[in-house]
Write a structure and sequence with these properties.
Chain lengths: 218, 211
């Protein structure tokens, strides 16, 4: 399983793997917002947590259709299914690799981009924390969606439609943690709920993903 | 160790039944060569034997846990080198050293080269070398000799013979004479002759192609 994860990370980082793509997309989205709503801090600061979370969420979505599609194209998915690794393990490793190459860099970059949107200083830390806790759920849900659409040609759009509604709880609680952090309010409950969503995803979704993969292999 | 037994197997592809009543028993150390025209269901049968899809009817013993499946889509990543690709599958299957597999398919000189820079034949050899690393005793191979030159076909035949010598089993879908002592199974007699529209068109084409 570790081996699958490290291979996927290696593939993503090498040429054509699309490692920097999500990060660049996130950067561009965040830079574009002040052009759209005006550069005043008074306008930007209140919406910054939401914008940053939305940007991270969309950036996560960008690389999802590669999670299983490439492995299916070159036959690796068949071979993984016949290898002595449970498909649930494959699903978890794939989600982990997706998080390491997308969620983690996004979480680390977000505090710097928050400066661009004038987010007050205490919010930077909590923004990073909320993303670190929340983005694993995005990767796991996305991997499940990718498994559902792996058999389809050009399944990317359908994947987005399937996955985005499932992202709602993570988005609500994640942005709430970041906003309360910026305003210096108590943020225990939303952070706990955000963690709960992620923990639930870790526990359940690998099984759902494996089941979807088994169907699509037929 | 027991052999590979299929009893009264029926397989379908995309919901269309292709073969029915397929029964065979391959003993350890023996090979079975599947023949039959294009589209008759050789790949589907192999995938069913590998446990990648459930049979429509009948049963296969053992399931997929003892078999290694090798198809034209070989699962090798273009940006990884030959050694990295093989190393990945080797660790996944718990095999230690990739050197014997490299040697068996004459890949030693290519071990540092990225798979995307291999020729079709070299790439095929890379895919076949993976079979040696799976440590599984039932090899299911779909058109294994496509794009191999004569020397490589001989190497492949040697590898299969060595595998059979170790008590392994091989099921091959191929039309190339490999010089391996094997039973042949013509799938034509198991073909499902349904009144499906798609199959009617396929028949006309196939007759033209055969004659």
């Amino acid at each position: 399983m570790i081996r699958i994860l490290s291979r996927d990370v290696a593939l993503a980082v090498r040429a054509g793997g699309g490692f920097g793509l999500s990060l660049a997309f996130f950067l561009i989205v965040v830079v574009l917002v002040p052009f759209g709503v005006g550069p005043e801090t008074a306008v930007l600061a209140p919406i910054a947590p939401g914008i940053l979370w939305l940007g991270a969420l969309l950036a996560c979505l960008l690389s999802l259709d590669r999670v299983f599609a490439l492995d299916r194209e070159d036959g690796a998915l068949d071979l993984l299914a016949t290898a002595p690794v449970p498909l649930e393990g494959v699903a978890l490793a794939k989600a982990g690799a997706h998080w390491l190459t997308t969620g983690l860099p996004l979480s680390l970059a977000a505090p710097f981009l928050a400066v661009l949107l004038g987010l007050p200083a205490p919010g930077h830390l909590w923004l990073a924390v909320s993303l670190l806790v929340g983005t694993p759920a995005l990767s796991l849900i996305g991997t499940f969606g990718a498994a559902l659409t792996v058999g389809l040609k050009r399944g990317g759009l359908l994947l987005s439609l399937l996955v985005l509604p499932l992202y709602v709880p993570t988005l609500i609680f994640g942005a709430d943690v970041a906003r309360r952090g910026a305003e210096g309010l108590a943020l225990g409950p939303p952070l706990a709920l955000l963690g709960a969503v992620t923990a639930g995803c870790v526990a359940l979704l690998p099984f759902a993903t494996a089941a979807a993969l088994r169907v699509s292999l037929r | 160790m027991s052999g590979l037994v299929a009893s009264d197997l029926a397989v379908a592809r995309g919901g269309v039944p292709l073969l029915a009543g397929v029964s065979f028993d391959v003993a350890p150390g023996r090979a079975l060569i599947l023949t039959g025209r294009n589209g008759i269901g050789k790949t589907t049968l192999l995938r069913t034997l590998a446990g990648l899809q459930p049979p429509l009817a009948g049963r296969v013993a053992p399931g997929g846990e003892r078999s290694a499946y090798g198809a034209h889509a070989d699962g090798m990543k273009a940006t990884l080198s030959v050694a990295e690709n093989l190393g990945f599958w080797a660790t996944l299957h718990g095999a230690g050293d990739i050197a014997p597999a490299l040697a068996a398919f004459d890949l030693d000189d290519l071990r540092g080269r990225a798979a995307q820079h291999l020729s079709a034949g070299q790439r095929r050899r890379l895919g076949l070398a993976r079979m040696l690393l799976t440590g599984r005793d039932i090899w299911l191979l779909d058109e294994p000799t496509v794009s191999l030159d004569r020397a490589s076909v001989a190497r492949f035949a040697d590898a299969v013979r060595a595998h059979l010598g170790r008590g392994g089993i091989a099921v091959l879908a191929t039309h190339v004479e490999l010089g391996i002592e094997a039973e042949a199974l013509d799938l034509e007699r198991y073909r499902v002759t349904g009144a499906t529209a798609g199959q009617g068109g396929g028949d006309i084409f196939a007759e033209g192609a055969v004659e």
